[in-house]
Design goal:
heme, 10 helices, 2 strands, Chloroperoxidase, 51% helix, binds protoporphyrin IX containing FE, metal ion binding, 302 residues
Length: 302
């Protein structure tokens, strides 16, 4: 009897691992095919990404109405903006995962692969059925699901239970950090901001944690500011401070099949690999040690 139970458990683990592997192979092949098709099929003309009849066509977005008392909002400015414009339900409640998939595709022009993957991922984290279940925006704030410490637009969950509210000081810091033309954000600005946020959180937050996948979520979220918004500070300001789609804004990703995971990850890896958090915390330790010794030698050259 023991042998039968043990064998069936081992087999079910092996089968689920094989199924996951096939799932991953299928997903990346799908995404790579879309990336390839994007190279072959001509792009949309600028200002023609949002189809006629869809919200945002011609840069005309449904009216922006800030959240009211009792509305559900989350740690993601992009999803809150959809609710603030009524593209997702304004109260942020009872949203189906499929609705989320369709609206993220329609408004931001991420590829179908990305728009399927992220809502699926969050459905898994919430232990809900992707095809039939729904969620409120605040549900996605489950700590160390996708939401994590050391974000650029929210205080850590340890300090702020309500992740639905933007942290104005953090956002102001981000908005003042652009070193590109017109103060626009660059890849290295975001690497630096994320590195500083991680070092700060590690120092201040007694429950700080940051697994490698959360680091990647952090750099992925930040990379949307470079890809979807082109680093443009004038668009990013209302997007982050008010969680509003900028007036007249239109998707700047012109590919027919949207921004694929493959293409997006090129930016994500540049941002993540540019982060020197360990180095800068080491530098700080070294500076502190030197300052304590009362020695200025080499201080500025560290
Ligand atoms: C597809 C469904 C999406 C889900 C489930 C989702 C989920 C999340 C979550 C949970 C966070 C909080 C992460 C943290 O703790 O910092 C977040 C942050 C963020 N997301 Fe989304 N997101 C989605 C789509 C998007 C899209 C399409 C964009 C861009 C247009 C975007 C841009 C951002 C930005 C800029 C942040 C803030 C990052 C920070 O504070 O460091 N997200 N998202």
């Amino acid at each position: 009897m023991f042998i039968v139970v043990a064998t069936s458990r081992i087999l079910s683990v092996i089968f689920s691992k094989i199924a996951k592997l096939f799932g991953a192979v299928f997903f990346f092949s799908w995404d790579a095919t879309l990336a390839l098709l994007n190279l072959i099929i001509p792009n949309y003309k600028p200002h023609a990404v949002v189809a006629a009849g869809s919200p945002g066509h011609g840069g005309l977005w449904p009216e922006y109405v800030p959240p009211k008392e009792g509305d559900s909002r989350c740690s993601c400015p992009a999803l809150n903006a959809l609710a603030n414009h009524g593209i997702l339900p304004h109260d942020g409640k009872n949203i189906t995962f499929r609705q989320l998939e369709a609206k993220v595709r329609e408004v931001y022009n991420f590829a179908p692969s990305f728009c399927w993957f992220v809502p699926n991922n969050i459905a898994g984290i919430l232990d809900r059925d992707y095809k039939t279940d729904s969620f409120d925006l605040s549900d996605i704030d489950v700590h160390n699901g996708i939401e994590h410490d050391a974000s650029l637009t929210r205080e850590d969950a340890f300090f702020s239970k309500s992740q639905g509210k933007p942290s104005i000081p953090r956002i102001q810091k981000l908005l003042q950090s652009g070193t590109g033309p017109n103060g626009d954000l660059t890849t290295s600005d975001l690497s630096q901001l994320l590195g500083q946020a991680r070092v700060e959180s590690k120092r201040m937050n007694p429950q700080y944690s940051q697994a490698p996948n959360h680091k990647l979520f952090g750099s992925s979220n930040a990379s949307t500011l470079l890809t979807i918004f082109g680093g443009k500070i004038d668009d990013i300001r209302p997007f982050l401070l008010e969680e509003r789609i900028p007036t007249g804004w239109q998707p700047r990703i012109l590919n027919r099949f949207g921004l694929t995971v493959l293409k997006f990850n090129q930016t994500v890896f540049k941002v993540e690999l540019g982060i020197k958090e360990e180095l800068s915390s080491e530098k700080k330790k070294l500076k502190r040690a030197l300052a304590n010794q009362g020695s200025g030698i080499g201080y500025n050259s560290i």
